[in-house]
Amino acid sequence: MPVTDIRTPAIVGCGVIALVIAASTLLRGRVRTVHLLFAAFAADIGFWYLSQSLFFSFPTDTRVWQTAVALLAVLLPVIALSFFEAMIPHEAERRPRLRRVAGVLTVPMVALVLIPLQSSIVRVSVFLYVFAMLTAGLYTLGQRGAQSASRATQRRVRFLVVIGAAAGLFTVIDFAWFLMLSNRLPPIGAALSVVFIFVLAQALRHERLLDVSELLAKLLVATGLAFLLALIFYLLSEVLFKQFETTYLNALLAILVIFVFDPLRELVEQWIQRIFFRDRFDLESSIGLLRRRLVHILEIEELGGSVVAALEQSRRMTGAGLYVRDQDGTGFDRLAGLGPRVPERIEVATARALLDRLDLGPLALEEVEREARDHKARGERVPASDEAVLAAAAVLGALHRGVVVGVRDEARDLIALLVLCDDRVRDAFSPEEVALIGSLAAPIGVVIENSRVYGQMKERDRLAVLGQMAAGLAHEIRNPLGAIKGAAQLLADPSADVVLDAASREFLGIILEEVDRLDRVVGSVLDLARPDQQAVVPTDVNAVVRRTLQVLSAEPGSEDLRIDVILDPALPRVAIDAEQLRQVLMNLVRNASQAMGGRGKIAVSSRVRLGRGTRSGGPASEEAFVELNVADNGPGISQKVLENLFMPFFTTKEKGTGLGLAISQRIVQGAGGRIEVRSYEGKGSTFAVIFPAVMDALGTPTPGTVAAVADTPSAGR
Ligand code: ADP
C-alpha cells in the first residue's frame, strides 16, 4: 500500500530538484571536469532520494530499490571526494590520499551491496562507510578552504562545510525517524541536501558564493526566528496559559512579537555574522565607528589620521591612502597613508581612465584584473576600457589591486580618493564589502567640504581683525599724506621762487605720483571699513552703466579695448547708491581690462532675471532680479585664485591692492545682492552682479525711466 504522508512527496520533490540541478549544470555552456563531477554528485543524491521514495511506494519490489539505494550510497563518497577535490584543488601536487582510499574501497563495497543476501551487518557497514567517508571529505574540504589564499574561498568553503554537515546530520536523523517508522516529520535532511546542492551549483556558476551565502544566512536567521516564535507560542498556549482564551493569547503574542522580534533578530543576525563572516564583522564595526567619528571632525589633517587609523584597526588591509584633490585640480595629494609604496600623489592626467570609471561607483581593481584574465583565458579580447583602467591603476603603486572610492562634493566633482588593498589574500573584498567601504565617501566628502568652509571662516575672521586695524591706520596716514602732498606741490609750483634742477623735479614727480597711489589705497581701505549706507533710492542701473562706461572709455590705455553693451530697456530699478554702483562697475571693467592686458573685448549687459525670492513680508514667489554682467575673454581665473577672489588684500597683480572685489562685494551685499563668478581657464571670466528689483506698492517691478538721465542711447559703442 503506498504510504501517503508528507515524507514521500517531499523526498520525491527533493530528488527531482537535485536531478534538475544536475541536468541544468550540464546544459549550461562549457562543461569542465568539475561540472561533470558535480552533475554526477547531484544526480547520485537525486536518484538516491527517488529510489527511496519508490522503495516506499512500491514495497513489492523492495529488493530492487533497496539495492539501488545502497549502490547509490556506496558510490557517493568517491564521487563527492573527487568533486570536492576538483572544486578546490589542493595546493600540493600529490593525489589526495582520502580519495584514493575511497576509490579502492568502492569496489568491494559495490560487490558487497550486490550480493543477493543482505544482512544487517552489510547495511550497517555500508552506512558507516558512507558516513565516515563523507565526514572525512567535508573535514578535508574545510581544511583546504582554511588554507586558501583567497578570503572569498575561505568563507565560501566554511559555509559549504556547515551546510554539508547539517545536511549529513539531518539525513542521519531522517533515517532514525524512518527506522522508528514515524512518517509524520518532514525530511529535513533531504531538504538541506537540496540546499547544499543548490549552493554548490551557484558557487560553480558564479565562482563566488558570497551573495548566496549571505542570502542563506538571512534565511537561517528567518528560520531560526520562526522556530523561536513557534516555540514561544507553543509554550504560551500549551503550557502556561492553557485556560486562556485565544484572543488574549493572540494579543499577548502580538505584543511579544512587537517588542521582542526586532532585538531578537538583530541578536541572531549579529551572532551569525560573527560566526560566518568574522572579517566582515570587523570591517563593518570599524567602518561604523569611523562614520560616527567623522561627524565630529572639522580639520582636514585630523580626517586623514582618523580614516587610516580606523582602516588599520579593522586588520583587513595592508595598504591604504586618502588623497585630496589639490587647489588647481591637476592631481590628488596624499593626506594620509598606510603601508609601504603608497604613492605621494596621483596625477589626474595619468589616472584619467581610472577616475572616469569611478563615476559608476567604488571600483575593485582586482575584479577588473580577474575579468581581464578570464577574457584572455577564453581567447577573447579584453575590453579597451578595462585595459585603460588597469594601465592607469599602475599609478597607485602598492595599491594597484585595491579598492578605489571616489569622494565627491555637492557639485558631484571628484574631490578626494580613498584607496585600500590587502595583498595577503586574493579576493580580499566581497562586493558587499566594497559597497560598505564606498559608504565612507559621503561622510568624508562632507568633512572635506566643511573643513574648507571652516578654514575660510578662520581666514575671514583673521582678515576682519586686520581690516579694522588697517582702517584705523588709514585714518592716521591720510592727514600726514595730505601735508606731504601739499608740500610737494608747493615745491613743484613753477611760479614759486625756488628754481629746481631737472633731477629734483623728477623726484618731486615721483613723490606726487606715489602719494596719489597711497591715497587711493588708503581711500579703498576706508571704503571697505565704512559702515553700510542706509538711505538708498531706487536707481536706474542702465543709466549708471552708460555714464560709467563713458568715463572709462575716456581713460588713457583703453584704446585697444572694445566694450559691447547690451542693456535691457525694461530693466526695473534697484535700491542702491548710484555712486557705489558706479564703483562696482568700474572695478569689474578695470579688472576685465587688466586681465586682458588692456586689449580685447568686454561685454557689459543687463537683464531681468526671475527667481524664487525670500523677500520678507510676502510669501515666497517668483521675484524679479536685475542682473548686470561683465564678461571678458581674458585668461580666466584659476581655482586657487577663485577661492580667494573676494578676500581683502588678495591680489595677483604687482601693483594691485586686492581691495576692488572685496569692496564691490561689500557694496553689492549691502544692497541685498550678490556677485556670481563664472570662469573658464583660457577662455575668460564673467562677473554677474545680481540685485533684487525694487517693487512698487502693487508688487510689480518699478521700471527705470530713460528720461531720468540725459544719456546716449542704449546699444554699444
Ligand atoms: P586687484 O585688482 O587690486 O588685484 P581685486 O579684488 O579687484 O584686486 O581682484 C583680485 C584678483 O582677482 C586680481 O588680482 C585678479 O587675479 C583676479 N581677477 C579679478 N577679476 C578678474 C578677471 N576678470 N579675470 C581674471 N582675473 C581676475
Strand order of the largest sheet: 3-2-1-6-5-4
Mean pLDDT: 81
Task: List bound small molecules.
Answer: adenosine-5'-diphosphate
Fraction of helical residues? 55-70%
Shape: elongated
Rg, rounded, reads 41 Å
Walk me through what this model shows.
This protein has 717 residues and is of the alpha+beta class. The protein has helices spanning 7-27, 33-57, 62-87, 97-114, 120-147, 151-179, 188-206, 210-240, 246-276, 278-294, 300-313, 352-357, 365-377, 384-392, 431-438, 441-492, 502-529, 541-553, 578-595, 639-644, 660-670; strands at residues 319-325, 331-338, 345-347, 363-364, 403-408, 414-421, 538-539, 561-566, 574-575, 600-612, 622-632, 674-680, 684-692. It has a six-stranded antiparallel β-sheet. A five-stranded mixed β-sheet has the order 8-10-11-13-12. A two-stranded antiparallel ribbon has the order 7-9. Strand 12 and strand 13 (684-692) form a beta hairpin. Helix 1 packs parallel to helix 7, helix 3 packs parallel to helix 5 and helix 18 packs across helix 19. The longest helix is centred in the middle third of the chain and has 52 residues, at 441-492. Residues 613-620 and 705-717 have low confidence and may be disordered. Bound molecules: adenosine-5'-diphosphate (ADP). Residues 587, 591-592, 595, 632, 634, 637, 641, 645, 650-653, 656-662, 685 line the site of adenosine-5'-diphosphate.
